[in-house]
Design brief:
By secondary structure, the chain is of the alpha/beta class. The chain has helices spanning 3-22, 24-36, 89-99, 110-122, 135-150, 177-183, 208-217, 243-254, 273-278, 304-311, 325-339, 345-366, 392-395, 400-412, 431-445; strands at 56-60, 63-66, 71-74, 128-132, 154-158, 200-203, 222-227, 257-261, 284-287, 298-302, 372-376, 379-383, 415-416, 422-424. It folds into 2 domains: 3-87 and 344-445, Alpha-Beta Complex (Aspartate Aminotransferase, domain 1); 89-341, Aspartate Aminotransferase, domain 2. The structure holds pyridoxal-5'-phosphate (PLP).
């Protein structure tokens, strides 16, 4: 081991020891949880936390507190939903008011059309909207609808894009370069137990030739192209100039639907999401995370001619808790807050996010690290590599061990970030929070 590397490991060990020393109550709870929850967590990705998953008691605005009473500035934001921060007053008041009425009806109520009216007035592709409870679920509704409309079985997705954990879409996501090359456009499964009936056709993000080849190889078989309008889930890789327009054109020519998965980008990169930010309107779009402001809610927006298949029951979309009033009370309050220009949500996110990401890069470069940032101010990536990535394979050249050490050092400094390099900002963060975060990053940068 080279001397520099040895000293990095030594710093990481010290940081880990420091975090362990002040999070003993989380460790106790983690050990207790492991006895009764697989891996001690409720969602597999949370196992990646170093040194172990922390347990939280409450949050407010941009801050959360753990079981030992430690306070953190939060840029994980529950993996994205908390665009208005923890416990935003407008949302909690709306939920509290609804609690006095009822938890759920399994039947119609005013909040359903009230949220749908707001949603359709904001989202360009949406004449109508239907609700479910998670992003995974709502993507399945979109893909089923596309199959019904086109009478075709397959769909095209891109390497590195995530559309939930269902068998049909959990393919070619965190795969290695070798696996993707060997598969040559066939889907690469991720985990044991997945059904071996691939309906996914895989192409490379930002690569026109690869999309054209996929349609040539599967003539008349592709029902839809699905993508995040920006690959936010895996590296924050923006669409190259003209690429979304190209997808719009090819899908129209080929009789396939264009689906934007706006689970992350929706109401975040702009009020009208990725389709607003990049100016391309898909046929269908899926939403979760920000729309529920921390409650379980997802939505599919689409043109009426497609949604008619759901209206008359040709396509089945069901769910006991669909449109539940607690989530919709939260959504109505969140959408009203986001859409009110006087709240200045988007200009603030732009200003604070830009200052934060540029500040982080300057600090890390000043400490001698090779680092890039890409994405949008409201959700961006910090990665230790020389060049911005244009596709998933290029993200694989990042030094992920170094990022993990940086994230651990930040945690020790009282700043929470996701383990994969993605940073979320919220309307609750202030200039003073950014100052504090950059000061913490200054101290952490010397330790990686
Ligand atoms: C782009 C994208 N689509 C779909 C999903 C799945 O959403 P959920 O976790 O609510 O099932 C996610 C989750 O992170 C996502 O990032």
């Amino acid at each position: 081991m080279a001397a520099g590397e040895q000293s990095n490991r030594f710093c990481a060990d010290l940081r880990e020891a420091s975090v362990r020393a002040k999070t003993g109550k989380s460790l106790e709870r983690f050990e207790r949880s492991k006895r009764v929850l697989p891996g001690g967590v409720a969602s597999g990705v949370r196992r990646a936390a170093r040194p172990y998953p922390l347990f939280f008691t409450h949050g407010e605005g941009a801050r959360v507190w753990d079981a030992d009473g430690n306070e953190y500035l939060d840029y994980g934001l529950a993996w994205g939903p908390l665009m208005l921060g923890h416990r935003p007053p407008a949302v909690t008041a709306a939920i509290r008011a609804q609690l006095e009425k009822d938890l759920t009806f399994g039947a119609q109520h005013d909040l359903e059309y009230e949220v749908a009216e707001r949603f359709t007035s904001i989202v360009p592709c949406a004449d109508q909207v239907c609700f479910a409870n998670s992003g995974t679920e709502i993507v399945q509704v979109a893909l089923r609808l596309a199959r019904a409309v086109t009478g075709r079985a397959k769909y095209l997705k891109f390497e590195g894009h995530y559309h939930g954990w269902d068998d049909s879409v959990l393919v070619s996501y965190k795969s290695s370069r070798e696996e993707l090359e060997a598969a040559d456009g066939a889907p690469v499964g991720m985990a044991m137990g997945q059904r071996p009936d691939p309906i996914a056709v895989i192409a490379e993000w930002n690569n026109e030739a690869s999309v054209r080849r996929a349609f040539e190889r599967h003539p008349g078989a592709i029902s839809a192209v699905i993508c995040e309008p920006m690959l936010a889930n895996n590296g924050c890789v923006e669409p190259a100039a003209g690429f979304l327009e190209l997808l719009r054109k090819i899908t129209s020519e080929q009789g396939a639907l264009l689906i934007f998965d706006e689970v992350i980008t929706g109401f975040r990169v702009a009020l009208a999401g990725g389709q607003g930010r990049y100016g391309v309107t898909p046929d269908l779009a899926t939403y979760a995370k920000a729309i529920g402001a921390g409650t379980a809610l997802s939505a599919l927006g689409g043109r009426r001619e497609f949604m008619d298949y759901i209206a008359d029951g040709r396509v089945v979309h069901a769910g006991s808790l669909n449109g539940n009033p607690i989530s919709l009370a939260a959504a109505r309050a969140a959408l009203d807050y986001l859409a009110e220009p006087a709240n200045e949500v988007y200009p603030r996110l732009e200003r604070l996010g830009t200052r934060l990401r540029e500040g982080l890069v300057a600090i890390l470069r000043g400490a001698g690290h090779v680092v890039v940032t890409q994405g949008e101010p409201a959700v961006f990536q910090i990665a230790f590599r020389a060049e911005p990535a244009r596709n998933y394979r290029e993200t694989l050249t990042s030094d992920t061990q170094k990022y993990s050490d940086f994230a651990l050092a930040l945690l020790d400094e009282g700043v929470i970030v996701l383990p994969d390099g993605r940073w979320y900002t919220s309307a609750a963060h202030t200039e003073a929070d950014i100052d504090a975060t950059l000061a913490a990053a200054e101290r952490a940068a010397g330790d990686v």
